[in-house]
Amino acid sequence: MEIKDWQKQVDDWISQFEEGYWQPSSMMLRLTEEVGELAREVNHRFGEKPKKPNEPEGDLALEMADILFIIISMANSLNIDMEEAFARMMEKYRLRDSDRWTRKEQFIEE
Fold it and tell me: What is the per-residue pLDDT across 10-65, written as a single tens digit (0 to 9) for each?
């Protein structure tokens, strides 16, 4: 599935409700909330903060997908083509960071 398909699927879901997309500031707050939930789970699994004995195991993948949903919702509401934005971002990293780290042997250009 391509990013444009994700954007359409999210738009189809949100468009069925009268309320539609939230304001960008509300989505930003929701994004912050979702990132916090991911951070909490990462901290429990890999950090110094153990879960309480009765606290259930979280789902890292689902927390990340929640973040994607909000990012896609925000992009849709602002008419941003995420495929085009992603391509621009990858080009930025290719140009800026191509020599920043030590490449693995199989990725060294001849």
Answer: 999 999 999 999 999 999 999 999 999 999 999 999 999 888 889 888 999 999 99
| Straight-line distance from the first to the last Cα atom of the chain, in angstroms, rounded to the nearest whole number | 33
Q: Helix, strand, or coil here: 60?
A: helix
Q: Are 7 and 82 in contact (CB under 8 A)?
A: yes
Q: How far is CA 99 from CA 20, 42, 52, 91, 95, in A?
A: 44, 30, 44, 14, 9
Nearest to 69 by CA among 106, 38, 108, 93: 38
Helix (H) or strand (E) segment spanning residue 48: none
Quickly tell me which residue has 């199989």 as its tokens: 106
**Which phi and psi angles does 101 have, rounded to 5°?**
-125, 165
